[in-house]
Amino acid sequence: MTIDMIPGSSGRIDAGDDKKITYFSNKYVLGLTVVAGIGGLLFGYDTGVISGALLYIRDDFDAVDQSSFLQETIVSMALLGAMIGAAGGGWLNDVQGRKSATLIADVIFALGSFVMAAAPDPYVLIFGRLLVGLGVGIASVTAPMYIAEAAPSEIRGGLVSTNVLMITGGQFLSYLVNLGFTQVRGTWRWMLGIAAVPAILQFALMLFLPESPRWLYKNKSSSEAIATLSKIYDPDRLNDELQHLSAALEEERRGRNSVRYRDVFRIKEIRLAFMAGAGLQAFQQFTGINTVMYYSPTIVQMAGFGSNELALQLSLIVALMNAAGTVVGIYLIDHVGRRKLALSSLTGVILSLVLLSVAFFLESSGHTNIGWVAVLGLVLYISSFAPGMGPVPWTVNSEIYSELYRGTCGGMAATVNWVSNLIVAQSFLSVADAVGTGLTFAILAVIAVAAVVFVLMFVPETKGLTFEEVEKLWRERARGRSNGAEKSLLEDDET
């Protein structure tokens, strides 16, 4: 067996090797991925469950029913908490490690779930939403990073995308829970409180799992890192991996000893990487995904389907399509590549947003029986978005930053995602009221066109590249030699 020797990290097995690594070939790595991905499940569940729970919270608290501001605050407080959690999550990961950060997130999330379930008034409920958001924000940074650092480069994209599958699965689960508890006493308390169960489960399972081997090797114990890596790689490749880690650590020690936020913008290669990662996170939200996920029942009713039950059922189909599309993305991301997948995804998103825009323009012009066109547009949107723009931003952000800046930049980029999420969630209905739903979707389509231009200009292909090859790619881009360097690395990957 021969291994591609590039100083830094995971070597790559030659294409002709009989021991080629596949998604299911190492049950240990897959197990780490699934357990870490429970953080994504919490992420998805929390973003989806509040839409149904809020209906019953209004029934219990007159103050909430009479105040749109309180309703918006209950929904948005989790997003504010997630922004804070993501901003601090990068630092927490660098200082305490990925495993410890996950455990802390679980404790905060479970505590927040219990506070919400027992809330005697809307203000305690809002505090519980803030706690849950903090846990979600930390998990949104930690899970992709933990998975990426334990994953062989050949299947890193698929494994990190599994975390996105858990997010979409959590959203689908929240819709099912909303329907399942509609006839149960204390409806919304069960909806919000049951979220503590997966947090407790993940906490228990994480106690038996190792810290990220890359973090261990750098910060704590090389022997523990070797023990973990030996369960991931065969002996030959393990030796190569350790050589790369040792070389990377030595180079880092000769460089900076501390991370400064201003360096993210001062050092050109770090700045270029962060711009690509943060831009993808922003466009993921500004192309309308959470408009669809948060407000799909409302959109369905706007399209002429007045029944609450029918709107929830159709929204459940949208959530199922989101999860199913992510499964497709897990396969495609390491075969087609991140960049091509994002571009094809955005093409479908543009077409579906145009279809939605046309449907609502026709509806506002007095045309009847066009509601199903809007529903078709929603389904096409999810079918296009889920395999590409769902997993690609999280995957790219887990792999494009150097070891020294991975936690800091990952946390900053995740914060951009949550800020963008909040802006979209808070503005969609107001913009739709002001200019009309048809024009609102047309605006989103224009943003999606801008996203295509952004990906073409600023996002390189990282399929199959090791962490150190990606670092080399950014260094070459910073020196103005991006095309040749990128082409060379990709050609090496294919041979």
Main sheet summary:
none
- Measured by DSSP, the beta-strand proportion falls in under 5%
Class from secondary-structure proportions? mainly alpha
Radius of gyration: 23 Å
Order of H and E elements: HHHHHHHHHHHHHHHHHHHHHH
Stretches where pLDDT falls below 50 for ≥5 residues?
A: 1-18, 488-495
Average of pLDDT: 83
Overall geometry: globular
Total helices: the number is 22
Distance between the termini: 14 Å
Describe the 3D structure.
This protein has 495 residues and is mainly α. It has 22 helices and no strands. The protein has helices at residues 27-60, 62-65, 68-96, 98-117, 122-150, 156-180, 187-193, 196-206, 213-219, 222-229, 235-254, 261-266, 268-286, 289-302, 308-332, 338-364, 371-385, 392-399, 406-435, 437-458, 467-478, 482-494. Helix 13 (268-286) runs parallel beside helix 19. The longest helix has 34 residues, at 27-60.
Chart the SSEs and their pairings.
Layout: H1 27-60, H2 62-65, H3 68-96, H4 98-117, H5 122-150, H6 156-180, H7 187-193, H8 196-206, H9 213-219, H10 222-229, H11 235-254, H12 261-266, H13 268-286, H14 289-302, H15 308-332, H16 338-364, H17 371-385, H18 392-399, H19 406-435, H20 437-458, H21 467-478, H22 482-494
Short description:
By secondary structure, this protein is mainly α. The chain is built from 22 helices and no strands.
